[in-house]
Write the structure tokens for this entry.
Amino acid sequence: MKTKMIFSLALVLLTTVHCSFSQDLLEILESEQQNDPQFTPATFKMTRIAIGHSTEVRGNGILELFVANRFWNTPADRSQSFVADRLSSRIALEYGISDKLTFGVGATTFDGLFDAHLKYRILQRSNEKGLPFTITLFQNMSYNSSPIANQAIADDFSDRSAFTSQVLFSKKVSKDFSLQVSPTYIHKTLGLADNDPEDFFALGIGARYKVGGHVSVVSEYYRTFNPIKSFDTFDTFAIGANWELGDIMLQFMLTNAVNMVEDAFIVQARNNFNFRNPNLNFGFNATYVFHLRNRLKNKN
Amino acid sequence: MLRIAAVFLIAFLSTSATDTTDKVIARQGKVSFFSRTSVEAIKAENNQVLSVIDLNEGKIAVSMLMNAFIFEKALMREHFNESYIESDIYPKAVFEGLIIDFDRALQDEQTRMVKGVFTMHGVSKPIEVKVKIVSESDGYVVTGDFETLVKDYDINIPPLLAGNIAKSISIDFRFEYQPYED
């Protein structure tokens, strides 16, 4: 009786122990998998939220052809223009030098700005402990090529140049919602009066909300803390939709900013955001992505 | 009393012995998938797929991180993770199954059916895959391929891109197993 009990007990023990060992092959794999850091993918997907830069950088060997357009109407009562009275386009090329560093050049038709920028992602958010943000540094320089008739205005190279520095912080709050804060410093002199500041401090806030697999709603707002005094300027606002189609990414937006280069659209928005002409700009950005490097070939 | 101790000891020894020697693991398994349409050919590779086999029972498990798939185009990887496979919510694809009639002692090559459940994008489907198992000095090499339908796993392809992504995806795998120790 006693031995029978012992044996049955041993048998039960044996089978349970055996089961607990063989039960979960997946648990073994789980424990093997834990150590790799997982970077948060696609906080904004596009290198711009709407009008301003996002923390995203393109990887090494990627060339982006970026075409941005703004359409708006003049306040004239009658207009015979086709589609819109005015159009400004900025054409730019952006190239990923490394997976973290992007270099870009662009030119705008309406305000004659030529610009170049460097963008470097110093920290990408991952599931590991550490700062819960992605941080990207942005530095741009622009040159204003538009003719100036007034002899009194100093316009040598340094006067025509403007500089924008930004530290972009972004956080993917949830799978669908991403938020960005963009402290900005701008230095510019051209066309400003003596009592105007030459160094501007601004703060941008941007957000993206994904409404579908390929479509998201975005909005951005830039506030300048020490605005230009000699003429009225307004905070910049944009609301729009981003649509991704494989290698082509499209952005549609409504904004009060005519210009497309940071130093111009952040401190020099002459109109407030409303639906009257010429305040309302319809913006359309198209990005075509060329992959110059095959990731499957050059890996390891 | 001594007898009890002996039984316990035997029970303990037998279980711990099976634990260390009867499992083999592949830590750098390779899984690739292909989608081929007249518009675009897409290929992706994952070289960090984990798999473990319980040699006694013929049980097999596979686990892969979706964001470890590398594509020819970097942007495709982002689209794949964000818009199609949603790796924020479903970071892994796992398979759990049984190798039918697995013979661990067979030194030669053996072709066997593996039956089990594959879970990806939150959808679990029973699948059957024919695999080739080659016994090597220090372990096993398992290779095979199968086809799967995109729509089986609730993956949404926008109509505009329907021409770029095949309805049926072919999947290739190769696992090299070595003895597993904790």
User: Anything to note?
Assistant: Strands of chain B lie at 23-36, 41-54, 59-65, 70-71, 92-99, 109-120, 123-136, 139-149, 168-179.
